[in-house]
Write a structure and sequence with these properties.
CATH architecture of the largest domain: Beta Barrel
Strand order of the largest sheet: 9-8-7-10-11-12-13
Oligomer: single chain
Shape: globular
Keywords: Membrane, Methyltransferase, S-adenosyl-L-methionine, Transferase, Transmembrane, Transmembrane helix
GO molecular function, one term: RNA methyltransferase activity
Protein name: Putative RNA methyltransferase CT0009 isoform B
Distance between the termini: 22 Å
Number of strands: 20
Family: Belongs to the class I-like SAM-binding methyltransferase superfamily. RNA M5U methyltransferase family.
CATH class of the largest domain: Mainly Beta
Order of helices and strands: EEEEEEHHEHEEHEEHEEEEHEHEHEEE
CATH superfamily of the largest domain: Nucleic acid-binding proteins
CATH topology of the largest domain: OB fold (Dihydrolipoamide Acetyltransferase, E2P)
InterPro entries: Methyltranfer_dom, NA-bd_OB-fold, SAM-dependent_MTases_sf, TRAM_dom, U5_MeTrfase_fam
Number of helices: 8
Length: 475
């Protein structure tokens, strides 16, 4: 098996990691507002504890341990080294969750978060942690996954250099090429902001367009500018925010409880014109019904930006919170935008999958080719599992004999075949199928592969006779 390289970028969700023994102990003296030492191994709901965050765990939550018992607790927005008071909110199996009440000693590697929404938004929980510290945390988590899920020993990882150093991204903001914002009838405000809230007689002033509050499907934090997406996409977001609440326009945000309302989501995708290398923006309005005459004002508003080359309307009549519609209409410009990766051109439609970090995708695909040790003599067979729109396999197709890609999503397979045609690649076959339901005949559908690309380490058992298995973690 070849070496495994992996990449990361700031502000992305963190993998779950194993719980380590306590890295530090707490003072024997308890703060005045902390409950006495628990008699039970399990802390009770509502109990306050003095804790020190040891590391980052699932979804960027701080991992701590109760001093007297070693019981594991997780705290949202607690960072390594932070000494704080936490109140137990719930117990889940072999761990509990706590809410931070107050900080006693600030965390290590703390920085000022540049985004005003960072303390409340669900998208950037570790923005006030230095990028270098984020890299260390993610590298530790991937290593632990390889040991406990991949069943590698630490000695094997070190001896054979299976785990290579993490590859940082050269930019930490404005790197995402896709963002999805939700409309809602009520703005969500954090508790500390409620006292400053101004209630207007006009209910439209409370309408929200933004990102969901952490852990809630029905609470939306109003956002005027997002540091994750491109500058042209932020201009579009600001333009929509400026006008959509005007009662004369007749817009109503979708209510997930009553299932009434017109506007559901605003999806913004950014690509590049392959000729001019200038940004291309797709604006996708997801609505509960098809009313193009009602959307005309918003279409005219955003289409004045030269970067906007496509305005799409996805119509989703279901009560679900998805942005994928049963019907899709092009209201302005093209039905897709383009992006270039490693010299290949890819068409990106409203609902097609594409790596959200274009900068790291470019680096990633080069690393895959290097790790696989592609000979470049057109002799090798590549099996691309969970191939999506075929981006990885197609970048290798120029140097191998044939690429076979498998993916369960029909639209992704359609896009993969289109991308192959656009780039004049004829030695790539893409098959729609569920890899969770394969049988012993699966290996008879293609020649013996020399290189297997998989997004999951556990899938390496599918092909027992392989030369390389490349396992990638991009989350």
């Amino acid at each position: 098996m070849t070496s495994i390289s992996y990449l990361t970028n700031t502000l992305l969700p963190l993998h779950i990691r194993r719980f380590r023994p306590s890295l530090s102990t707490l003072s024997c003296s308890l703060a005045s507002d902390v409950d006495p030492a628990p008699n039970s191994y399990f802390p009770k709901r509502g109990q306050t504890l003095e804790l020190v965050c040891e590391s980052l765990a699932f979804k960027g939550k701080g991992l701590c341990k109760v001093t007297q018992t070693g019981f594991v607790v997780l705290c949202d927005r607690a960072l390594p080294g932070e000494h704080f008071i936490g109140r137990v909110t719930r117990k889940k199996g072999n761990y509990a969750e706590v809410t931070k009440v107050k900080t006693i000693t600030p965390p290590r590697d703390i920085v000022d978060a540049p985004c005003v929404y960072a303390p409340y938004c669900g998208g950037c929980k570790t923005q006030n942690l230095s990028y270098e510290a984020q890299l260390r945390a993610k590298e530790e988590q991937v290593r632990d996954l390889l040991i406990h899920v991949g069943k590698f020993s630490l000695q094997h990882l070190q001896l054979h250099a299976v785990l290579k150093p993490i590859v940082p991204c050269r930019i930490q903001f404005h790197y995402r090429n896709k963002m999805e914002f939700s409309f809602g009838p009520q703005r969500w405000l954090p508790k500390e902001s409620l006292q400053d809230r101004i209630v207007d007689d006009d209910a439209n002033e409370n309408y929200a367009l933004g990102l969901h509050a952490p852990g809630f499907f029905d609470k939306i934090l109003n956002v005027d500018n997002c540091l994750l997406q491109s500058h042209p996409a932020n201009k579009v977001l600001a333009a929509v925010q400026e006008c959509w609440r005007d009662p004369q326009l007749g817009f109503s945000p979708y209510n997930v409880h009553s299932h009434k309302g017109f506007l559901k989501h605003l999806m913004l995708r950014t690509g590049r014109d392959v000729t001019t290398d200038q940004p291309e923006v797709m604006v996708n309005f997801v609505t509960s019904s098809y009313k193009p005459e009602l959307l005309k004002f918003l279409v005219d508003k955003v289409s004045v930006f030269p970067e906007v080359v496509s305005v799409i309307n996805n119509v989703n009549t279901s009560v679900g919170n998805t942005s994928v519609g049963e019907e899709e209409y092009t209201l302005y410009g093209k039905s897709s935008i383009t992006e270039t990766l490693r010299g290949l051109t890819f068409q990106i439609s409203a609902n097609s999958f594409f790596q959200t970090n274009t900068y790291q995708a470019e680096v990633l695909y080069k690393l895959i080719e290097d790790c696989a040790g592609v000979k470049g003599d057109d002799s090798e067979i590549v099996l691309d599992l969970f191939c999506g729109t075929g981006t990885i396999g197609l970048t290798l197709a120029r140097s191998v004999r044939h690429v076979y890609g498998y993916e369960v999503v029909p639209q992704a397979i359609t896009d993969a075949r289109l991308n192959a045609k656009i780039n004049g690649i004829q030695n790539a076959t893409f098959v729609q199928g569920d890899l969770n339901k394969i049988d012993e005949n699966f290996g008879k559908n293609f020649p013996k592969p020399d290189i297997v690309i998989s997004g999951f380490i556990a899938l390496s058992f599918l092909i027992p006779t392989y030369s390389y298995v490349i396992c990638i973690s991009l989350n």
